[in-house]
């Protein structure tokens, strides 16, 4: 049988139904969807109430004019409350998530409440966070894998270069070349160890062996060990400790020693021209403050905000991996302390480590 042809709709109610069906769901124009559509509708309603109130007032209908004016004000206030709940509060939450991501909490996700413009922004930020987390994980795995692979050839190069230096027949440029190979291999070995240490810190595979640490004894040991090494380079290391001693702290003695040695290495490397490095410590309230100052050129003002960032080398001539200070900062943070870098008033760089005093 032939299909019946649909009759065209007629009548006001039928036309209204067709019009509503056209603007429902996916048929709604983009300009009327989501928050922008809701805000447009509210703005039109407020404008209509205001115009109606003005017309009523012009025709002498004061009661109706006041009624529509009150409606306009009430709708305006309600729309502001709605805007705060639907737009302002979610955006503030997205700002907190973005700050956590910027601080290194890659993979942090924000909760999506509605399918509107803010919901789309939430999806975009969550997608960005996940991809950054994946990229960071791949980078850490690559750095760790390459560092492990470099260990074996570097050990062989260092061992054979040191063995060759025992050969007295090796003289002149040949001996000088082997000495350079040995020094560069040692430098690369230190960089590889720093990379491995850093990846363990970032991946959460780093654990502190906590115990009671006698900071005064630790600093004196570092002073005795390092001052002997610096004498060969004609650099003076002075150590200043309070006569009453220092309070103990809870921490990992080996890691804290690593932090001090790394900071002293940087002081010697970048402040060599000053020929003097000062190491001091003193209790300050609930913290013990350890300071290392050199008398070199100091840190360039544009580099100061970034010196603790990983792989940041600054504009100096000295070479380095750019992660030694980042590792120190991570270790100090794990101890609940703070590491700061600044320029001293009389010249030179000043690195400060503040560690919380051990609680009894």
Automatic annotation (TrEMBL):
Give the UniProt keywords, A-Z.
Kinase, Membrane, Phosphoprotein, Transferase, Transmembrane, Transmembrane helix, Two-component regulatory system
Pfam families cross-referenced by the UniProt entry: HAMP, HATPase_c, HisKA
Asked whether the keyword Nucleus is assigned, the reply is no
* HAMP domain ranges (all copies): 85-137
Q: Where are the transmembrane segments?
A: 37-57, 64-83
Give one GO term, molecular function aspect: phosphorelay sensor kinase activity
Report the superkingdom from the record.
Bacteria
| EC code | 2.7.13.3
Q: Can you give the residue ranges of the Histidine kinase domain? A: 145-359
Q: Tell me a GO cellular component.
A: membrane
Its recorded reaction(s) are: ATP + protein L-histidine = ADP + protein N-phospho-L-histidine
Predominant place of localization: membrane
Note whether Transferase occurs among the keywords.
Answer: yes
Subcellular localization, per the record?
Membrane
Write down what this protein is called.
Answer: histidine kinase
- Species annotation: Candidatus Scatomorpha intestinavium
Identify the taxonomic lineage of the organism of origin.
Bacteria, Bacillati, Bacillota, Clostridia, Eubacteriales
